[in-house]
Structure formats: structure tokens, C-alpha cells
Amino acid sequence: xxxxxxxxxxxxxxxxxxxxxxxxxxxxxxxxxxxxxxxxxxxxxxxxxxxxxxxxxxxxxxxxxxxxxxxxxxxxxxxxxxxxxxxxxxxxxxxxxxxxxxxxxxxxxxxxxxxxxxxxxxxxxxxxxxxxxxxxxxxxxxxxxxxxxxxxxxxxxxxxxxxxxxxxxxxxxxxxxxxxxxxxxxxxxxxxxxxxxxxxxxxxxxxxxxxxxxxxxxxxxxxxxxxxxxxxxxxxxxxxxxxxxxxxxxxxxxxxxxxxxxxxxxxxxxxxxxxxxxxxxxxxxxxxxxxxxxxxxxxxxxxxxxxxxxxxxxxxxxxxxxxxxxxxxxxxxxxxxxxxxxxxxxxxxxxxxxxxxxxxxxxxxxxxxxxxxxxxxxxxxxxxxxxxxxxxxxxxxxxxxxxxxxxxxxxxxxxxxxxxxxxxxxxxxxxxxxxxxxxxxxxxxxxxxxxxxxxxxxxxxxxxxxxxxxxxxxxxxx
Amino acid sequence: xxxxxxxxxxxxxxxxxxxxxxxxxxxxxxxxxxxxxxxxxxxxxxxxxxxxxxxxxxxxxxxxxxxxxxxxxxxxxxxxxxxxxxxxxxxxxxxxxxxxxxxxxxxxxxxxxxxxxxxxxxxxxxxxxxxxxxxxxxxxxxxxxxxxxxxxxxxxxxxxxxxxxxxxxxxxxxxxxxxxxxxxxxxxxxxxxxxxxxxxxxxxxxxxxxxxxxxxxxxxxxxxxxxxxxxxxxxxxxxxxxxxxxxxxxxxxxxxxxxxxxxxxxxxxxxxxxxxxxxxxxxxxxxxxxxxxxxxxxxxxxxxxxxxxxxxxxxxxxxxxxxxxxxxxxxxxxxxxxxxxxxxxxxxxxxxxxxxxxxxxxxxxxxxxxxxxxxxxxxxxxxxxxxxxxxxxxxxxxxxxxxxxxxxxxxxxxxxxxxxxxxxxxxxxxxxxxxxxxxxxxxxxxxxxxxxxxxxxxxxxxxxxxxxxxxxxxxxxx
Lengths: 478, 478
Prior knowledge:
The structure is a homodimer. In chain A, 37% of the residues lie in helices and 14% in strands. Chain A has helices spanning 8-16, 21-35, 47-56, 101-108, 151-158, 176-180, 215-225, 266-281, 292-300, 305-313, 315-321, 327-334, 341-363, 379-384, 388-393, 398-402, 432-446, 471-477; strands at 41-44, 71-75, 112-117, 164-169, 184-187, 207-212, 251-255, 285-289, 367-371, 405-414, 420-428. In chain A, strands 1-3-2-4-6-5-10-11-9-7-8 form an eleven-stranded mixed beta sheet, sandwiched between helices. In chain A, helix 2 (21-35) packs antiparallel against helix 3 and helix 7 (215-225) packs antiparallel against helix 17 (432-446). The longest helix of chain A has 23 residues, at 341-363. The first copy, chain A, starts with 7 loop residues before the first helix and ends with a helix. The A-B interface holds A 203-204, 230, 233-235, 304-305, 308-309, 311-312, 315, 336, 339-346, 348-349, 352-353, 355-356 and B 203-204, 230, 233-235, 304-305, 308-309, 311-312, 315, 336, 339-346, 348-349, 352-353, 355-356.
């Protein structure tokens, strides 16, 4: 029996037809060997342990265990019991006894943890190169940075090693690497997924994010993982609903032309225009919105208060182990050491001022469509400008959690130079279903293959929650 | 023509019958002279200026100007154009060119600013004695502290010098002095009244509060002043509705008996029991709620983050003019100088943890009824224990703004020792109308006279928004 594609519906069709989890575990390890990228995983599950877990799943029963037999990877700032958590800082490593809440929920739904993945140290960065371990290779183009901070999780997914992977997202860590690796990256509404068992970056802004090969798969994982958790003070009840038939005419905010930033990357600008044309073709209405105040919000994230919050999260360790940090991370955190409580409040006030300014803009549309990243950078670019290019990558991501919005990055096509193109849909907290529905339309419309695998998008009526009316028509476009 | 009582309906009846604003202005100054308390006002309006303003009001027309000809006082941390703002710190004083937003709205509705009132310096304190000016005398008992920080505003109202007064409330400054002076003190939902033109204490928690002789009057002022203000980043749209007939059976949370704190004041405990009996007699259902976590929230206010926020509000002035501060205030602010941004975030996290814990308790009732203050303190008590007794006064107030609740302090009776008794009703943000409706029932049921004036509670059907069914029956009790 040939190994199927790793999207969930293909795997479940495989299992329904008698395929075994053991053969999929073999396929996972075969792919890891084939990909030969020592930067992806910081820890791998033992094959024996996985086979035991597979046995414990019992008979294939996706209605009871919606992620039955699905392999996934976990960013190494999220606890998996019995695997070290490093945050890509070996001296910080510890061995957790219990799973992070989201990991536990996914395991209970039948998913199998393949391993822990590399990241920008302490989830600070959007590039994926700020790690003492080998840098994961961008799955689409090894010259490019993989994106971060959830670099390993994105690459593992794009390479077809796992069906999905958990990341985290404070500044864009769940969206940028998706955009740079031709996969889907969902950053849920803050509080939807518990951060219990996750090493904080900025506790007030952190969320667990989901990478997958398809939009349907992102939503299936979200449905399992989105649970109010009394052990996480920032947890909220965010219902996993609203995914299905996209409303026929959405009002979609896009940055006013004069406010769009691509840092000279005309190809990315063109790719964005093509994506917007796709939205128009789908029947939606685009509205240009001034973006200056969104950029001001974005700039807050690396000034004052929230850098101090990152520092606060690891203060005791940093104060005694500064030399253990990656040089760039050390520089960023060190700059926050002297910040006062007054500085923190100044940041909170500045944010509140800007929130009031952008509130009417946000209220004027159903959702926003922005480029995921303004441009691509090579590893050489980052060697030359390790901080500036990182900041630029966050142009369209940094403001999102500060404004309590949800987002999903979705591939839109392949640029003329072969690099991936991606847009991100953004909406106020709680509209995860709406953004995800539209993301599904876009991904289907793109006709793209999945990640770097060459696998086709599945054409299925497999999920009760998807209204597949019109599916074939759209998919044929690709 | 004899001068009427200063509640708004009595004053408006006086004007409707041909009484003049000039005669009321004369009565105001006559009362100021009679009261002979140099601690109440830090600045008084000129009589000539008030008479000019009275002329400018035009003919009596309360439907256009709902506060036509109503004298009021303004706490001296709120700007009134042309009157110095001191915050009870003479070296800090400045002369504002424009009114604070709330002052402007009240003037536009026909109200007349009589003067600026004394306070605990920079609104830090619940006692009223932390001022370099003479301490305002408690209107009911000159041995007692007047309560603060809005000491002068409360006493001016209780003495019948003005119909109402503005205070501010961060920790309880709009409730404690109401409770200690036999008047009504409303602390609206955060953001309902603009803080534009108000010297911040804790910007994230501050609100402008309203003192008045009757509950109806508090609500009339609230209706005028509650306006979304784009110049205040913390302003919200809080509709001034829900005031009227109280629902017949409310579920009212009260601190579990074992959690009630009166610091040995058995008379206050008895007064509180009598107030609860009054609620039962009104047909409502009392539910005991564990209060330990509310007290933990209260303690946060004078630890770490929010003390630092007070310091941050006047940092530049404090750092260069420490000697200008009241000794107790200086000690409190000075303790916050060294706090780091990490400390600030630790406070925010601790609050978030507690918010999650008390959320189900808050959701389990319609509103809460707590003592306004746990006990009374004399000025001699405060000389002996300037910080501890202040903290104890805040037992039932300090947690309220941190939990984004609204509140109203209302007199319930006179203790056996002649000191005033008061309870405070608390509810989640936006339920101002509900708490105020019940406060009106309680005040009427008490049959108390107004403040220290001896004036009877008005028995009127003067307001379209009040359903006066049953009024006479209840008022007869007094």
C-alpha cells in the first residue's frame, strides 16, 4: 500500500481502507530521513513509543477520536510530557512531567506527537535563524530563511513529515513561517487555545498557533484544541463555530495603496495584487483602509513594555545565565533590563490610544486581507541585518495580537521567481470561523499543491462541518 | 422666599415657582459662611462670575438644560477653566484653559461651578487628611475623618453647600467619603465618564464619581455626564439606561459571614445586618459569597504595579520636587520608584489570575451589597496609623475598579452612636442603572434626612425616568 498524502482526510481515508498507523509512522521516519534537515527537530519520539500509542488508539474511529492516528509536531516551547522543553536554549532545558493542555487535548483526540521542533530562541524572532541548533531549511527554497519563530513546526509540516504542527504566535510566529513555506498557519483569537504548559514570550499576547497542509485540517485541529482552560488565566471561551459556507459578499479591508510596504519587492506586491483580484473574483468587496496607525501599533511590540514583558518571562534565568542566550536574543532582552514600571504603563497607554484610533477602521469591515510578509529574505540578508530585516518581516503581523485579532495565513500562489506567496486574513477576536472559511476558498482557488510535498489538495466531502457546495467549480480553477 | 433644599427637584420646583438663581447663589455663600470649614474649598468662584453665568442661562427650561441653575463643586484634580488645579499639591498647581470634558457637559446642561474642593493629595488616600491644606471636617461628626480622597466634594454636598459634586474614584475615593458623610456616592462603570482633564492616579482604573444628596440626583448628573469621549483613550460607550423600577427579586451577593471584616466595630456590623434585612424586606434574595479572592484583588492595588502607575502619572514632578509632597504620599510614591517593568507585568498577571477566580462568583449574582467602609476612624486614629487605617477603610472598595465593576454608596441609617451607616452596591460594568435603582429603594426606605442638612428626602414625581409606584408607602417608613 503506498503511503498517502498527510492531510487528515487522505490519512483517514487510508485508515478507513485498512491502512495501519504503523505504516504511517514508518512513512514519517522515512520522510525525516529523506528530508535530511537536522534543524527541524530538537527531539524525536521513539518509534517504539509511537507504535505503543498507536496500539492504544484502538480501532479506527474518527467520530470519537477526530485526530485518530494523525502525526503532529510540537514547537519546543510547549511541554510534551517526557520530552525535554528547551525553547532553543539548551541551558534552560527542563523535563516536563505533564503535557501542555493543548497537547493533551490533541493526544486525547488520537493525534501522535512525532517530536519537538526548533524555534527562534524563546520564540523571539520571525526569521528562524536565532537558534544555537542548525537552522531549519526553508522547505521551498533553501536560500531563504524558514521564518520563525515557529520555524521547525512550519518546515516539518511543509515537508510532509507531519499532518500538522503546533506553533506559538505573539508577533507573527504562527503566520510568517506558514507564509514562507507554502502552508496554512492559523493564529487563533487570544485565549481560544490554552497557553498552560507553554513558555511565555509576552503572556498578555501569546497564543498557540496551528500549521497544517490544508485549511480544513487547521480547523479540525482548532475544533479539538479550542477549550476554555481554568488553569490559564488568559483562557477565554471562544466558540469553534462559523466555519462553513463563506458569506457571499464580504467587505474586506486592505491597506491603502500608499500605505503598502514591500521594501522594494515588486514581485511580492504583484502577488498581493493577484490575491486581491482573487477575492474580487470570489464576489467580495475590497475597501482601502489607512494603515498608519496599525503600523504604529506594530512598532509598540518591540519598544518598551512588551520587550520588558519578554524579559520578565525569563528574568531570573537571564539575570544569571546571560551568556546562554543567542547573541541577538541577548541583545534584545538585555535592552529591556532597565525598563521601569512607568515605562510599562507608558506602553499600555500608547496602545490604548491607538486602539481607540483604529477601532472605527476595524468596525468598518468584516475582515482584513494583508500580505503575510512584505518580502522574502535570504539567510545572507539576515546575517547582514539580523534585527532590521526581522522587524520588516513583521510589518503585517506585529499589530495583530496587540489589537486582539485572529488571523490565518494562507498560500495564494507561486511567485514568478518560484518563491511562495501568501496572504493573511485578520478579524476581531472570535471570528476565527469566518477568516478560516474565506481562507479555504482562497486556498482551493489557488490550486496549489501542499507545502513542498507536491501532494494535491484533497477534493473531499469528508467533513460534516464543511458545506462543499461549489467546491468542484473552484478547485478546477487550479 | 425661603431658600429651598438643594436636591435638584426642590431647586427646580423653586425656580419653576419664580425663585431666582441669584438667590440660590446667595444661599450657597451664606451656607459656606455658616459651615465655617476652611478645608472644603481650595478655590471659590467669584459671586459676580456666577451671577453672569446665571444670566446667560436664559429662562428656566429644565427640559433643554436638565441641570439649570444647579450649584456643584469639583474635586481639585479635575480641570475647570480659569480656576487653578492643584491636586492638593500647591507646587504642582497650574491654570487650565479648558474644562475637563465632564465639567463642560455639566455646565452645558446648566450647572454652575461653585468651586474646587480639597482632596487627599493626588487622590491617593481614602481618609481626607493627606492634604497640606486644612482637613475638611466630617459633616456628621467632626472627630471623624471626612473620608477621601474626594473629601471636600463629599463634605460640600453633605453640608448642603452644593446639590452635587464631582469626585474621582480609583480605590474608593468616590464611595468612602459618601459613606462617612451620609450622602450618595456613585462610582460609574470605568469609561462611562470621560477622564479628559483629570489628573490621573491610575489611568487604567480611574473614573470620575458623583456625590449627591439623593439617588435621583446622582442619576440625573450621570445621564448628563456619561458620554463617549474620543479625547480619552479609556472612554467607553456605557448607556445611561436601566434606571427605574427595580426588578422585584434580585439575587444579591454578600460576603460570607466568616469573611466579613469590621476590625472590631460591632456597631458597624450590626448596621450592615440591618441593611441586609432591608434588602430582604424589599423582596430580594441574599446569597453569601466567599470573599477571600476579592480581598486578594484589593491588596494588589497598593502593591507593585498600581502604585507604580500612580508614580508614573507624576514621575517628572516627583523626581524633581519630592519635598513638595505630603509626607505620607511621598512615602507611598517613593516606594514605587524602583519598580521595574517586570514588576508591573507581575501585577497584571496576578490580577488576571484572580479575575478568573472571581468571575464565576460575580456571574452567580445580579449584584453585590457590601459595607461601604468596615468602620469609622477618628482623626486621632489616622495620626497614629496613617497607612494601616487607610488600607482598612478600603476593604470593600479597593477591588472594585480592578474588576471593572460599577458601584454606588448609599446611606442606610444612623448607628446607635450617631455615626452614619452606608452600604455599597456593586455590579459588573454597565449595570449602573440597576445598582442605582436599588440604591434609590434603599435610601427611600431609610427615611434619612440628606447629608448633614436636616432636609427631608423629596417626595416627587418630577422625573420622567423614575417609576414612582409605591413611593409613598416606602417613604412613610422614615
